[in-house]
Write a structure and sequence with these properties.
The protein has 230 residues and is an alpha/beta fold. The chain has helices at residues 3-20, 39-47, 58-67, 86-92, 102-111, 141-150, 169-189, 204-210, 219-222, and strands spanning 29-33, 52-55, 74-77, 95-99, 119-125, 154-161, 195-197, 214-217. The structure holds pyridoxal-5'-phosphate.
Amino acid sequence: MTITDRIKNVRLDLHDLCAKYHININELKLLAVSKTHPASAIQAAYESGITEFGESYLQEAVNKIQALQQLPITWHFIGPIQSNKTRQIAANFDWVQSVDRKKLLNRLNEQRPAQLAPLNTCIQINYFDEPQKKGVKIQQLSELLELACQLPNIKLRGLMAIPPKTDCFEKQLSQYLQIVSCFKNYQRDFPQMDTLSIGMSNDLEAAIAAGSTMIRIGTALFGPRESSSH
Ligand SMILES: *Cc1c(COP(=O)(O)O)cnc(C)c1O
């Protein structure tokens, strides 16, 4: 299947799912996760109408951003962040979704180039306290959100989460409903948050049913990634 065919299928699925759950499709953003796929694949997806792309590996991402700089693409960084990498993230991306500690917020704020708009930022939460996983624990979320909205070069947009992987729809849904309810609670104190980034290729329906505003889709759009570590 070509990328164009896959995109068509994903769009049909999204259309059906939004109808099934009474969701306005214009309020659900599609982020195409292009990590490990070449610039040519991104260009093909762009030509099929996709404009927002997510990357997880910084050097690979920066190479592709440079190769495609003539295209008006919105780039999201969604991978784990080492603090010595914040400068390149601040300089090259429009969004970052994987911020999980104050040090990263402060560095991104200081390093955001003055001529660029504030960096759109989602805080990654580790809602289920999984020890091996990135993301801030809910107990520390308020402090991080408070800092994020004080920094002039950071624009707080919302939360991102990757819940425990399971193929059981009911379990996926129950996990996402808990995350949605957490998001809505924090939205009362931080009403500028308009983004809840949840849902990937294998749990898309549950995320949409629960109330995602941004799904991050890789495999379903670009096909399987080659390396098992990716
Ligand atoms: C790779 C990745 C995705 C996309 O996963 P698929 O299962 O390929 O859709 C989404 N979010 C994050 C944070 C990722 O690293």
